């Protein structure tokens, strides 16, 4: 099943090369699911499924990042791979000991922000400065179904 998800991701990623929208949408959806599951920790199945879907997304990212043709610079790929390994460890800890998922949610939020396009910020002089990133996501990006 993971292999099918990886193939699907790679095919779509190639079709959308240069666009980070898909990764941002996936992480936004899973963050919604993680937040919802974390607030209802008495439902162990939903809690674990949300964690495992987040881990699956990060594993797909890990496989894509190890491709020698991946366009990111080697240092960025190495940093993201390290984060993916951390996600795997945190996921196992959270499942086995019911730990908080706030760190996973915060990491995803930071990655989403990094993937977001720079929003022009008009300063007092009326000139545009591209220093602030948009971090608000419309409702259609909220998680609506399974991530296979």
Set out the fold topology.
Layout: H1 2-15, H2 21-39, H3 44-65, H4 74-97, H5 102-115, E1 118-122, E2 128-133
Antiparallel strand pairs: 1-2
Top keywords for this entry?
148 residues; mainly alpha; two-stranded antiparallel sheet; 5 helices; 2 strands; disordered C terminus
In short:
With 148 residues, the chain is mainly α.
Description:
The chain has 148 residues and is mostly helical. The chain has one domain (2-10, 21-116). 63% of the residues lie in helices and 7% in strands. The chain has helices at residues 2-15, 21-39, 44-65, 74-97, 102-115; strands at residues 118-122, 128-133. It has a two-stranded antiparallel sheet with strand order 1-2. A hairpin with a 5-residue loop joins β1 and β2. α2 (21-39) runs antiparallel to α3. The longest helix is centred in the middle third of the chain and has 24 residues, at 74-97. The chain starts with a helix and ends in a 15-residue tail after the last strand. The model is unreliable at 127-148 (pLDDT under 50).
Fraction of residues in helix: 55-70%
Strand content: 5-15%
SSE order, one letter for each helix or strand = HHHHHEE
* Global shape: globular
Tell me how many strands there are.
Answer: 2
Distinct helical segment count? 5
Strand arrangement within the widest β-sheet reads: 1-2
Largest sheet: 2 strands, antiparallel
Low-confidence stretches: 127-148
Mean pLDDT: 76
Q: How many structural domains can be distinguished in the coordinates? A: 1
Distance between the termini: 8 Å
Q: Give the radius of gyration.
A: 17 Å
By secondary-structure content and strand pairing, the structural class works out as: mainly alpha
């Amino acid at each position: 099943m993971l292999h099918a998800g990886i193939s699907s991701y790679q095919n779509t990623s190639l079709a959308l090369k240069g666009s980070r929208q898909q990764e941002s949408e996936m992480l936004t959806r899973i963050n919604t699911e993680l937040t919802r599951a974390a607030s209802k920790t008495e439902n162990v199945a939903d809690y674990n499924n949300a964690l495992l879907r987040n881990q699956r997304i990060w594993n797909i990212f890990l496989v894509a990042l190890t491709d020698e043709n991946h366009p990111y610079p080697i240092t960025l790929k190495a940093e993201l791979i390290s984060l993916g390994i951390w996600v795997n460890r945190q996921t196992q800890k959270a499942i086995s000991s019911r730990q908080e998922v706030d760190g996973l949610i915060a990491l995803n939020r930071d990655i989403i922000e990094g993937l977001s396009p720079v929003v022009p910020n008009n300063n007092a002089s009326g000139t545009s400065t591209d220093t602030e990133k948009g971090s608000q996501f419309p409702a259609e990006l909220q998680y609506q179904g399974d991530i296979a």
